[in-house]
Write a structure and sequence with these properties.
Elements (H helix, E strand, L loop, with lengths): L2 H16 L10 E6 L2 E8 L2 H12 L7 E7 L7 H14 L7 E6 L2 E6 L8 E7 L2 E8 L2 H13 L5 E4 L2 E2 L7 H14 L8 E6 L2 E8 L2 H13 L5 E8 L6
Parallel strand pairs: 2-3, 4-6, 7-8, 7-9, 11-12
Antiparallel strand pairs: 1-2, 4-5, 6-7, 10-11
Helix pairs in contact: 1-2, 4-5
């Protein structure tokens, strides 16, 4: 490793150690240089830790980019077949996706889980390997693309999501699109009472405010934001106001 590469690695490691949300004590990460790019691997303690670590690495001066090889720790590992079945159930039960054909790789073949017919508004193809979900195909809007990604992250046992879905016709992305997508996610999330929260976004940084009834709800609302593609950071200002016992 050259002196310049060593300096970049040292800088990235220092940035990771100084960022409390990365939680290196719970999920150690590897940092190295390959062809001038910073490669981060290992198992992050949470999705937030993964995204914050990647953002810190991207800020390193002199690097030619960041290669993401970080997986997210899960409470319990699950088989790819179990993950596939659970994710397909989520996708087929979501009204926003009823006009999408859904296919999944099963063993060496591809199985059609839901056929929307020739007048459908998209096609979602799912491949799962070692807990990593890869999404391909085409959907109608950026909100649909983001919704599919969040549903993948909701699925127990998922360690990473690679979202290669295309949007047709193409849409211009912006903060308003992120707000709309996260609003949709919060609306369908059974854990979150979305009518008590407000979502703001500036340059990909999401700010959550309002009130919820439990800490679990507050944590879930933030997780939904991190799971939404395009979000670069989350500021959680939601307050917990427990409902007094009758």
């Amino acid at each position: 490793m050259s002196t310049a590469d060593e300096a970049i690695v040292k800088h990235v490691r220092a940035a990771l150690e100084s960022e409390r949300r990365v939680e290196l004590h719970r999920g150690p990460l590897d940092v190295r240089i390959e062809d001038g790019a910073v490669v981060i691997g290992g198992e992050a303690a949470s999705l937030a830790a993964k995204k914050v670590a990647l953002r810190a690495a991207a800020a390193a001066a002199g690097a030619r980019g960041v290669v993401d090889r970080v997986l997210v720790a899960v409470p319990e590992r699950r088989g790819d077949g179990e993950i596939r079945d659970a994710l397909c159930n989520l996708l087929t039960s979501e009204a926003e996706l009823r006009d999408c054909t859904i296919r999944a790789k099963v063993n060496s073949g591809v199985e059609t889980i839901h056929d929307a017919g020739s007048k459908g508004d998209g096609s979602i193809e799912i491949v799962i390997a070692d807990g990593v979900v890869t999404l391909a195909g085409t959907v109608l809007s950026l909100s649909h693309k983001r919704l599919v990604g969040v549903l993948a992250w909701w699925t127990a046992g998922v360690r990473d999501v690679v979202d290669s879905l295309d949007v047709s016709p193409p849409e211009e992305d912006n903060d308003g699109e992120l707000i709309d997508a996260l609003g949709l996610v919060h609306e369908i999330d059974p854990v979150v009472r979305h009518d008590m929260m407000t979502v703001g976004c500036r340059h990909g940084v999401v700010t959550l405010s309002g009130e919820v009834r439990t800490e679990a709800e507050r944590v879930r609302a933030e997780f939904d934001a991190w799971a939404t593609s395009g979000v670069v950071d989350v500021v959680n200002r939601i307050e917990v106001r427990e409902v007094p016992a009758a």
